[in-house]
Amino acid sequence: MFVYIAGAGAMGCRFGYQLHKAGNEVILLDMWKDHIQAIKNDGLKIVGDTEDCVKMTIMEPTEATKEAELIILFTKAMQLPTMLQSIKQIIGKNTKVLCLLNGLGHEDVIKQYIPEENILMGVTVWTAGLKGPGVAKLIGKGSVNLQSIDKNGEEAAKKIVEVLNQAGLNVTYDEDVLPSIWRKACVNGTMNSTCALLDCTIGEFFASEEAIRVVDTIIHEFVMVGEATGVKLDEQAIKDYVMKTSVAAAAHYPSMHQDLIQNHRPTEIDYINGAVAKKGDALGISTPYCHMITDLIHAKEHVLKIK
Ligand code: NAD
Predict the structure, then answer these.
(1) pTM confidence score
(2) Contact, 69 vs 2, CB < 8 A?
(3) Which end of the chain is less crowded, N or C, counting CB atoms within 10 A of the terminal residue's CB?
(4) Beta bridge partners of 144
(5) Residue 86, ligand 1, Cβ within 6 A
(6) Of 45, 76, 184, 278, catalytic
(7) Does the beta carbon of 268 lie inside 6 Å of ligand 1?
(8) Do residues 152 and 135 lie in contact, with contact meaning Cβ atoms separated by under 8 Å?
(9) Helical H runs in 249-285?
(10) pLDDT at residue 38 greater than cutoff 80
């Protein structure tokens, strides 16, 4: 299959690398000039569970011309509209677009560019990191759940599942993916922002009763808002999942800590706790914890002079 990875950061490199190794034609699209130059000069270097270096095609989004069969979106949430605007020329009437970003509400942005029968929404628990320009660190195993948002796109989506599985990406076609997307958002909404604000690991944060009260309240706000938008969510099952994840990832600093505290980059807060606060306002549901956490992360961005 002819695949573009729109946003070739850590996760884009993982998916691009695995699809390339499985024999697909893959083009990476990115805006980070040093990263593009490093991959053009030396290839994409893979470290971690596997050591490898592969020659891959990478360019800026506006340089791409050939119509895509599949575009996998892997920007940060706030980069998504600019990316979609910059790749309009490679989107044909049969181009499928798969979104695996963390966070909520991306389908509303994507629908402005792509017909609904061509949009696949999903969630992944694969992980990846960038060690620097052109170097991706890939550790551990993961999986993907995805669904076409329109029944008419289901058959084509299942073919894409096959292609991704041939690349070892462990993908399931999910008849109702929204609960999984919201459950992952609950994981991010309870540990990303809090560990970034408190400058601690997941295990350090989850060690106190007070923290667990905060976690429970955030999950409750997510569930109230999610259910009001028609997503079926089991609050106790989500709490259990979050607690289990916190144990498995206890030693880690979550990605928002890495972005905000370690690298002074903007965060995806508006698409996680911020999205719940905004949807809650529109629905008349009170979400004071999500509001406060969103405001505090933005305040911290301001303190650190991050634009
Ligand atoms: P990333 O930060 O690695 O890359 C996103 C974009 O930022 C890319 O275009 C990349 O080139 C650019 N970028 C990265 N470092 C940069 C730097 N120092 N200077 C300039 N530009 C830089 O993002 P990611 O981790 O691949 O995440 C993409 C999406 O996938 C997000 O929505 C994220 O929440 C989600 N996600 C990430 C993981 C993970 O383990 N990384 C897991 C699941 C979902």
Answers:
(1) 0.97
(2) yes
(3) C
(4) 124, 171
(5) no
(6) 184
(7) yes
(8) no
(9) 255-256, 273-283
(10) yes
Percent of the chain whose pLDDT exceeds 90: 100
Ligand 1 closest atom vs CA 31:
9
* 151 is known as an active-site residue: no
For residue 128, the CA-to-ligand 1 centroid distance in Å is 9
Tell me what the mean pLDDT of segment 180-203 comes to. 98
CB atoms within 10 A of CB 141: 10
| Whether 28 contacts 57, CB under 8 Å | yes
CB contact at 8 A, 12 and 72: yes
Show the domains of the chain with their CATH numbers: 2-175 (3.40.50.720), 178-304 (1.10.1040.10)
Token pair 């920007």 is at which residue? 75
In this structure, are strands 135-138 and 44-48 parallel, antiparallel, or unpaired?
A: parallel
Structure confidence by residue, pLDDT tens digits, 57-116: 999 999 999 999 999 999 999 999 999 999 999 999 999 999 999 999 999 999 999 999
A 10 A CB-CB count for 41 gives 9
30 lines ligand 1 (CB under 6 A): yes
